[in-house]
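In this supplementary section we document a worked example of the pipeline. Step one takes a protein sequence of length 678 as its only input; no multiple sequence alignment statistics are reported here. Step two produces a three-dimensional model, which step three serialises into structure tokens for compact storage. The input and output of this example are shown verbatim.
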Amino acid sequence: MKPHRKSAALTAVIAVALGASAQQPGLKGIEVADMDRSVKPCDDFYAYANGTWRAKNPIPSYMDRWSRRWQAGEVNKDQLRNILDEISSGPAQPKGSPAQLTGDFYAACTNTKAIDAAGVTPLKAALDAIDALHDLPSLQKELENLNANGILAPFTFGAAQNPHDPTQMIADVGASGLGLPDRDYYVKPEERFVKARAEYLVYVAKIFTLAGASEAKAQAAAQTVMTFETALAKASLDNVALRDPHITDHIGKLDALQAMTPHFDWKAYIASTGAAANDINVDQPAFMAEFEHQLVSAPLADWKTYLRWHVLNDASMSLSQPFVDANFGFYQKELAGVSELKPRGTRCAEQTDALLGEALGQEYVKRYFPPEAKRRAQALVTNILSAMHDTIEGVDWMTPATKQKALEKLSTVQVKVGYPDKWRDYSSVQIDRSNYFADHVAATHFEISDNWSQIGKPVDRTRWGMTPPTSNAYYDPLMNEIVFPAGILQPPNFSVNASDAVNYGGIGVIIGHEISHGFDDQGAQFDAQGRLADWWTPEDKKKFQAKTACVVRQFDGYRIDGPEDIHINGKLVLGESIGDLGGLTIAYRAFKKTPQGQSSEKIDGFTPDQLFFIAWGQVRGDATRIETQKLMVQGDPHPVAKYRVIGPMSNFPPFAEAFQCKAGSPMVRSDADRCVVW
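The serialised model returned by step three reads:
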């Protein structure tokens, strides 16, 4: 296949992207007042770019991190809340319509008087069913019922693309059923994990007490839960291992899964889902072996305690205030350092978005994402894809054979901007504005059933993995697509009224980041069709791995804030760090083709290049609670914000040139240490 060439139509779209001059009057620039001029940009660009804003805007008590970008995400939720307040207080809407579903769901969620009066009563039927378990067949039936209602313990079952034939959906069985964030919290000896285990025991006992158990029985139940979950955790993969798609690739037929767990009737389980499961992937065979061991060896009483716990824990934020407070006190206050619950209305807007997001999103995009915003965002994406094309063509370390495969993959990237072309139909969901818990169960059951219905079918490429109001973006390697919801295409990331420097330094780097994921350590293992397939020559693969190893070493050297010597795990954050470095590189390359990027005119005393880099520092410069940093360094594939600014820029010579940073400056890595991937 010949290398990808830009068509006349593509060139025309790029011209649109480049045609809006950044010198037009009234275009928005960087936030000059946010900068800390007392810090030299070559010493600490994270502090320089927006240190003053962070000093003047401490993290709100209800948030775990804060910046103009995170503030914008909360503004999105305020906008959703305004929409829902309006709909829920207006005239009755046709049953099954987006307005009826979202308005009534929100009205029920905000009716705290009814929720508090109900207490734990909504769970009575589920808890009674668990109490009635008397043998393995009845246990299996209950697991079927719980899974259908979103209680994913001790395993998950759902639809996933076949990594060897991404045009088809297959069944996937995964490890689950842990109440702590991940397996390391159960087994590692460091003080922070020991402390988390102790606090978890207190929390579990508290929930059992709220559900009616005596103090002594609640504490005994908490110990049972910890013992049961620890056994599952020890059989689970850690977060670094889970990043390798080959480690979780175990596709077989039903007989193979049945042989792993002979005391669980998978044929009956799958029949209960209604799925047409022929091929089944088992993510973690060792976990399934432990599941079998627990079926055989764990007393039925322990299973009952374990399942009661997961029903209670999963439902706690949908129950009365004491349950909400207990859940918040552990997961947010203890683990993340957040001291205050968000307002009820905001939390209900979040829940409406989470469970009925494309119904709510229709109204959101009407109000907050005009057609001109979508057009300009699409043009930006096209321009940055073009810059990635030029980057791949220009690298000197790839052979022509591998380069051709990379360009082929880039040419097939699907782009989704703003919102779906086809909205999901939620009209079958029964939402009653007088019963929030029932509404939550109904919406969750719809989501599970909808997922199961995809098994055995061709992939529906119109589906989205995020809702339109979400302030985030993603790359899906099996779909080979990049997705930018309307919620992230808002200031400070992006605006139709922003200069090129702000848009390319903000959303442009985010766009480049997602494109680069197709060529990071994970994405590079999938080909142009989204198949888990090796398209590299052996020589080029070794060169690529050497380049990514440089990024691992760089981030291994960074430590989080606080008195403890806790370092970032370079292997865990490798993909996101490659994405940041690649995103910065190709967004800058695209910016240099714009009118502002080609000019030398200073604005507010800064050159166009300086404005581009400041824009990125201001978009990415979050303040993050120390407790949250500890959570992130353990389980989040993203580095903490400081190093998402410092890390890629210190590798990038145009940054050093823009601010005249000398060799040896903290923001300039030496030639021997400098990492370059794309």
